[in-house]
Each structure stands twice: as structure tokens, then as C-alpha cells.
């Protein structure tokens, strides 16, 4: 539900720099984590990420501890074996972990096929650039990630930065920011926005019923939102939502279109379907004041934000394409997806007999 009617959060004065960095990193996290990408390491080897040696490995990379014979715990002289722990882990998290490993293999194989490598130096440089956007030293950035996102530096390198850089290289396309895109971004950031309340409903009959009640008593919109909206965040606020931007891709197109057709304060929209089984009713409460800025003064900032947005989209579409082109047989779940080998429909000519 959230994806279909996602609205932009209001900006907090004095925190614009941090917000931009949050969009950069947060957006990348969303793209990659939603795709289920969990890379093992960020070292490039033979065109893809190689396994990083564990802390207990010897110089030849062989693990000293034989996990198959290891007792992980002992309770009153009764051992808890590796096999028991492994079985429990598979039962609880096996599907998710296996899916992450499958996605890792997809990227690794694509890198190997196309001769794509991502070096440790590239990963480190990317992290330096990101931390600068937050005005933090790299070690402070790592501490923030661990505290707020529960990501260790190793996980951040291998699970977020490596796949992002690998997918950008696999995409192999330049980002083209047009004048029209710059104009729309300027309108979104500095132009007036629509202030509104919103009720979200999950079936057309209920939507029609609530819409008729609102038309009869528009002043009841707030209480009806609290009683009937299925969107928890806005419901608690009587339907209050962040101001709607004119061009934001984070907001459903039909919702934006309806919002910018309002003329009179207090006007009620029709029933807007934003997804299967999801219906929205808006109440117009005016517009925000535009923020006066010269386009030239903010051009570099808008250019950077647009480039990052387009990179995120490119990374997501590239990985989606790789997933679709890969044949995956998941024996744990019994599922098969991706390209399937088609049996040949041609038959060999019959051999003549004499």
C-alpha cells in the first residue's frame, strides 16, 4: 500500500544537507535491499566478488575450525551441534538467505561474463564520497550506519556499495539530465505544493459510501479519516499528509493530477484508484508558498539529485533485467523462474532404409 501512495516527507529547515545524503544512501538501500541483494564481498576476482577469508582462516584460506564436527554450545554436558544450529537456521531464515545467495550469484555471473570488476579502492572511494555528503568522517559514517541501520562496515561494503557499483558498470549507460527534468525538479523543490488531507480505502463499495458522507458533510473529513482510512500514518493525523509535489515520482500520477486540479479550498476530489484494491479521497486545503531561488544558484544541487535518482532507477532496472534473464531452480522452495529451455520442435529427417 505504501508504494502506491507514497508522498514526499516535509523538509526540515537546517537539515537539507543531511536529507540529500539520506536520499542518496537511503534510496540506494531501498533499491538494493528490496531486490534482495546480499553480496558476499567487495573484492574483485575473475570479474566478480570473491569469497573473503574468515577471521579463523589460515594463510591458504582453509578454515581451521571443522564446522561439521563443532559443538556450538553445551548444556549440562549435552552438546548443541553444528547440525542442530544449521537446521534451525534453515528453518527460520533459509528462504531469505538462499534468495540473497541466488541474487548474489546472478550479479557475480553477469560480471564474469562481461569482464566487469570493482576494486577495493573503488569501493573505498565511493564510501568517502558518500560520507562527505553527510559532512562526516568515514569512521563516523560507519558508526552512524551501525547505529541507525545495523550495518557493519563489512556488510556495508559487500551488501550495498559493491553491488551498486557493479550494477552501474553492468548497465553501461550514461545518465542524461535534460532541461525539462531540471525544470520539473526546480518546481518540485521550490514551487508551490498542494496541501491536502487524504482517506485511503480498500474496496470500491466502502470508498463510495465514505465519499457520499463527505459530500454531504465536508467538515466531517477529518473524523471520517480517523475512523475509516486504512493508511495508518495519515489516519492518526485525521488524514493529514505532507504537501503534494507537482512532479514527484514518489507519488502516484493520478493522485498528483487530481491534487493540481483543485480550485477552491475545501473542495473534495472524486474517488481516485491508485492501485488494485486501493482508493483515495482528497480534501484540498490550499497551497504552500513558493521558495524564491534563482535557478542558476541551485542548478548544481538539482543536477546532483537528479543524477542520483536516475542512477538508482538504472541500477534497479539493470538488476531486474538480470533476474529475468537468469534460470533459477530453487529446490528449497520448489520454485523455478526465469528463462526456460525450450525443447526443439524440429525433428530430424527419417533415415532411409533399404
The description of the largest β-sheet is:
3 strands, antiparallel
Number of helices: 11
The total beta strand count reads 9
| Amino- and carboxy-terminal Cα gap | 71 Å
> What's the shape?
extended
What order do the strands of the largest sheet run in, or round the barrel if closed? Answer: 5-7-6
Q: Give the strand content.
A: 5-15%
Q: Portion of residues in helices?
A: 40-55%
Radius of gyration: 26 Å
The stretches of 5 or more residues where confidence is low (pLDDT under 50) are 8-64, 343-349
Instruction: Look at the helices and sheets and give the structural class.
Output: mainly alpha
Return the average pLDDT rounded to an integer.
78
Tell me the series of helices and strands, N- to C-terminal.
HEEEEHHHHHEHHHHEEHEE
Describe this structure in words.
The chain has 11 helices and 9 strands. By secondary structure, the protein is mainly alpha-helical. It has a 3-stranded antiparallel beta sheet, with helices on both faces. β6 (272-275) and β7 form a beta hairpin.
Amino acid at each position: 500500500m505504501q508504494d502506491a501512495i507514497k508522498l514526499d516527507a516535509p523538509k526540515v529547515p537546517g537539515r537539507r544537507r543531511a536529507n540529500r545524503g539520506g536520499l542518496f544512501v537511503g534510496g540506494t538501500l531501498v533499491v538494493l535491499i528490496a531486490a534482495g541483494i546480499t553480496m558476499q564481498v567487495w573484492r574483485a576476482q575473475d570479474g566478480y566478488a570473491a569469497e573473503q577469508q574468515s577471521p579463523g582462516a589460515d594463510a591458504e584460506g582453509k578454515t581451521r575450525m571443522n564446522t561439521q564436527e563443532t559443538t556450538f554450545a553445551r548444556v549440562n554436558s549435552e552438546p548443541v551441534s553444528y547440525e542442530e544450529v544449521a537446521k534451525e537456521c534453515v528453518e527460520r531464515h533459509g528462504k531469505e538467505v538462499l534468495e540473497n545467495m541466488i541474487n548474489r550469484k546472478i550479479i557475480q555471473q553477469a560480471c564474469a561474463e562481461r569482464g566487469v570488476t570493482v576494486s577495493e579502492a573503488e569501493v573505498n572511494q565511493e564510501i568517502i564520497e558518500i560520507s562527505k555528503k553527510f559532512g562526516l568522517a568515514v569512521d563516523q559514517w560507519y558508526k552512524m550506519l551501525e547505529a541507525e541501520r545495523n550495518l557493519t562496515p563489512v556488510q556495508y561494503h559487500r551488501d550495498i556499495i559493491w553491488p551498486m557499483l557493479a550494477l552501474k558498470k553492468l548497465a553501461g549507460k550514461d545518465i542524461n539530465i535534460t532541461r525539462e527534468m531540471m525544470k520539473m525538479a526546480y518546481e518540485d523543490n521550490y514551487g508551490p505544493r498542494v496541501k491536502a488531507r487524504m482517506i485511503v480505502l480498500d474496496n470500491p463499495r466502502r470508498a463510495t459510501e465514505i465519499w457520499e458522507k463527505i459530500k454531504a458533510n465536508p467538515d466531517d473529513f477529518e473524523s471520517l479519516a480517523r475512523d475509516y482510512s486504512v493508511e495508518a500514518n495519515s489516519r492518526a493525523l485525521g488524514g493529514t499528509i505532507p504537501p503534494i509535489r507537482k512532479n514527484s515520482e514518489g507519488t502516484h500520477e493520478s493522485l498528483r493530477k487530481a491534487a493540481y486540479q483543485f480550485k477552491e479550498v475545501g473542495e473534495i476530489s472524486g474517488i481516485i484508484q491508485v492501485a488494485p484494491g486501493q482508493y483515495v479521497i482528497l480534501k484540498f486545503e490550499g497551497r504552500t508558498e513558493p521558495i524564491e531561488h534563482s535557478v542558476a544558484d541551485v542548478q548544481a544541487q538539482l543536477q546532483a539529485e537528479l543524477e542520483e535518482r536516475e542512477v538508482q532507477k538504472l541500477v534497479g532496472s539493470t538488476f531486474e533485467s538480470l533476474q529475468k534473464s537468469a534460470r533459477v531452480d530453487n529446490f528449497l522452495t520448489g520454485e523455478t523462474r526465469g528463462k526456460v529451455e525450450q525443447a526443439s520442435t524440429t525433428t530430424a529427417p527419417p533415415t532411409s532404409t533399404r
